[in-house]
Task: inverse folding
């Protein structure tokens, strides 16, 4: 079943065109990898899906499946998208001083529960729940009491993103360079964590520069993204070709 | 009547000769002085025209006896039984039995004692003079040397309409506290009311050698009221002061904080959080004087301004010649939640000694749009995200409160104000170009 369908999407940020006619379709259960040169607009694409207010969509549409109907995603606010299962693990996670990681996670989780008409979790119940998820990612519990991402190392921030993903169990997960900044062991832990969250009901889009993440999370499709749109689509072998040859042959 | 009329009625009340003399000096001077205007540096950003134009009623002659219980019931959400409480109702002290505190009144003082508390020195500060000109009975608290009070001492100023005639009430309470050597005191001032009033408080606190004071000035006033706190701390050798000014509501809250480092090695930590809304104003004047060396002073004031509210931070640090190895920092951070809110922040450093460390800084900004986006992208609504960030911003101040119970109480009070925060349209609809993240 189609989960996300993007048609001829054009978008800009501060007068700079970043998406130039993007077409993209994702079905439930699929894993897509997106690879492309620096500055080609991959993060822009992911933030537009999440609803970042700095971007303006100038043409095209984004359809997203909600209750078996394809809805215009662009009409939903950032938090409504999140509550409907859109999740972006950011390339550069934001530090939020003064807000504890635990409080943030609990608020976030309860907002999603409430949206779906479920009862919210008490502090105690949530603590038990989140500790379980932290084990999956081998995260120390003291990260809960620290301010969101403040003073976290690059790799710790990335792991914290995946923890949020594990807590919220979203339907559409976009992982923007989650692998960069992770050491070899962390990459394995995060990769395994993501694999455990993978199911036939959700879809994952991996934005990455390297094959190594794809060794852990095997994609169904690999897309080459350049100049604001997808230039070529293939299977896992396309990533291996890029690893050897770079992007020069595309031109 | 205006604020300097009709001292005759007051002067006809029986009191001691020295008190009368002390008071009439101030009456004479305050009548001669012009009412402060914005032409004066200290009042440049604060308009007192309405305060001046209002017809005030003096508090003497009003009977407030027997009302304390009613008032306490009314304000019970502010009360904590764990506090030792002294109340002033409409400016008059309510005699109460305190379990452990040695409380005295100025009328009980002998002539010689009188002069230890009441100096004939006349300040230039208009509102302090006004307080002295209207003084009736001062409250004196002596904390014995070595004594340590676990229970915070709470001094409440209630203003109650049932007692008032037509005009709003102006009252001028005065408090002296001597904290003995190595003694330990937690002190809270709170002002409450549901009618217009003008609370013009003066307090003097002396910290003897090695003593420690944690002080909270909690101002949650009725929205058409004026509350001025003029407080002087004098710090002897190795004493420590922690001062918190929490300003949540009121037409004009004014804090005038004077701290004199008189003994070597004394430390003062002054924190402030002002959450102004609608047309409210919060005005802070701090004056930290390092008269001797090896002292440390820290100031951190944080403001969250909504609607058309305003705030002033006027922070003076003075380091006297020879006050070497003084370490002083001052920081004033502000978040404007509306484009109509205004902050005027003015640091003033006067350093006359070598070998000192003195820094200051001011920031004014809006909430970080990237932080709002991040929280929202995890399902938290924009309003909740803004409240969460605003809370994180001001709660930093409360993290410095040592007494855990006091900290919890303050958190709950601030949380209530934060939950009512109205998010103005300009913080709601962000245009990408307007990236006013003035973070330093
Ligand atoms: N606020 C902005 N103003 C102007 N240009 C911007 C802004 N934000 C991003 N850009 C530009 O948009 C282009 C796309 O950036 P984007 O971050 O989407 O690239 P990317 O493909 O994710 O790159 P990388 O692989 O390095 O992460 C870049 O040229 C970038 O400089
Ligand atoms: Mg990127």
Result:
């Amino acid at each position: 079943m189609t989960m996300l369908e993007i048609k001829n999407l054009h978008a800009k940020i501060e007068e700079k065109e970043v998406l130039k006619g993007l077409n993209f379709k994702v079905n439930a259960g699929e894993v897509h990898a997106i690879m492309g040169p620096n500055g080609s607009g991959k993060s822009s694409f992911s933030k537009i899906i999440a609803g970042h207010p700095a971007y303006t969509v100038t043409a095209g549409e984004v359809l997203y499946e909600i209750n078996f109907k394809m809805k215009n995603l662009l009409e939903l606010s950032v938090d409504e998208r999140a509550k409907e299962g859109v999740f972006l693990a950011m390339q550069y996670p934001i530090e939020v001083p003064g807000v504890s990681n635990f409080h943030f996670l609990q608020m976030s989780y309860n907002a999603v529960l409430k949206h779906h008409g479920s009862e919210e979790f008490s502090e105690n119940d949530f603590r038990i729940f989140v500790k379980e998820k932290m084990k999956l990612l081998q995260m120390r519990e003291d990260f809960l009491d620290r301010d969101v991402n403040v003073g976290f190392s690059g790799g710790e921030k990335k792991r914290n993103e995946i923890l949020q993903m594990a807590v919220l169990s979203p339907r559409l997960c976009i992982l923007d360079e989650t692998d960069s900044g992770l050491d070899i062991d962390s990459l394995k832990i995060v990769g395994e964590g993501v694999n455990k969250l993978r199911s036939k009901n959700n879809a994952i889009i991996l934005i990455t520069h390297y094959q190594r993440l794809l060794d852990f999370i095997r994609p169904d499709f690999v897309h080459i993204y350049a100049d604001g749109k997808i230039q070529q689509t293939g299977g896992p072998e396309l990533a291996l070709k890029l690893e050897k040859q770079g992007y020069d042959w595309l031109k | 009547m205006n604020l300097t009329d009709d001292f005759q009625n007051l002067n006809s009340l029986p009191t001691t000769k020295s008190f009368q003399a002390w008071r009439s000096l101030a009456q004479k001077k305050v009548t001669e002085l012009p009412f402060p205007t914005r032409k004066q540096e200290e009042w440049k950003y604060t308009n007192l025209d309405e305060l001046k134009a209002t017809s005030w009623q003096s508090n003497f002659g009003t009977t407030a006896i027997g009302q304390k219980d009613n008032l306490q019931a009314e304000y019970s959400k502010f009360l904590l039984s764990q506090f030792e409480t002294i109340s002033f109702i409409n400016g008059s002290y309510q005699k109460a039995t305190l379990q452990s505190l040695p409380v005295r009144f100025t009328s009980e003082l002998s002539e010689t004692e009188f002069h230890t508390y009441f100096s004939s020195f006349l300040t230039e500060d208009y509102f302090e003079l006004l307080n002295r000109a209207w003084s009736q009975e001062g409250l004196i608290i002596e904390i014995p040397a070595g004594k340590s009070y676990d229970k915070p001492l709470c001094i409440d100023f209630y203003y109650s309409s049932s007692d008032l005639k037509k005009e709003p009430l102006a009252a001028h309470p005065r408090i002296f506290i001597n904290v003995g050597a190595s003694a330990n005191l937690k002190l809270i001032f709170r002002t409450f009311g549901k009618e217009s009033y003008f609370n013009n408080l003066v307090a003097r606190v002396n910290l003897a050698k090695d003593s420690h004071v944690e002080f909270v000035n909690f101002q949650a006033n009725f929205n058409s009221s004026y509350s001025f706190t003029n407080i002087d701390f004098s710090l002897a050798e190795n004493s420590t002061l922690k001062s918190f000014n929490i300003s949540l509501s009121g037409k004009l809250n004014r804090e005038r904080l004077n701290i004199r480092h008189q003994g070597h090695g004394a430390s003062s930590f002054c924190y402030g959080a002002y959450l102004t809304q609608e047309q409210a104003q919060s005005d802070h004047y701090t004056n930290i004087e390092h008269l001797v060396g090896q002292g440390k002073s820290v100031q951190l004031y944080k403001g969250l301004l909504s609607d058309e509210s305003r705030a002033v931070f006027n922070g003076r640090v003075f380091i006297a010649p020879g006050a070497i190895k003084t370490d002083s920092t001052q920081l004033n951070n502000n978040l404007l939640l509306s484009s109509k809110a205004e902050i005027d922040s003015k640091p003033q450093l006067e350093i006359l000694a070598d070998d000192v460390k003195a820094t200051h800084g001011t920031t004014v900004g809006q909430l970080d749009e990237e932080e709002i986006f991040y929280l929202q992208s995890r399902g938290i609504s924009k309003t909740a995200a803004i409240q969460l960030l605003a809370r994180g911003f001001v709660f930093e101040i409360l993290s410095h409160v040592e007494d855990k119970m006091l900290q919890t109480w303050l958190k709950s009070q601030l949380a209530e104000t934060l939950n009512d925060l109205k998010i103005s349209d300009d913080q709601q609809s962000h245009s990408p170009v307007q990236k006013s993240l003035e973070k330093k």
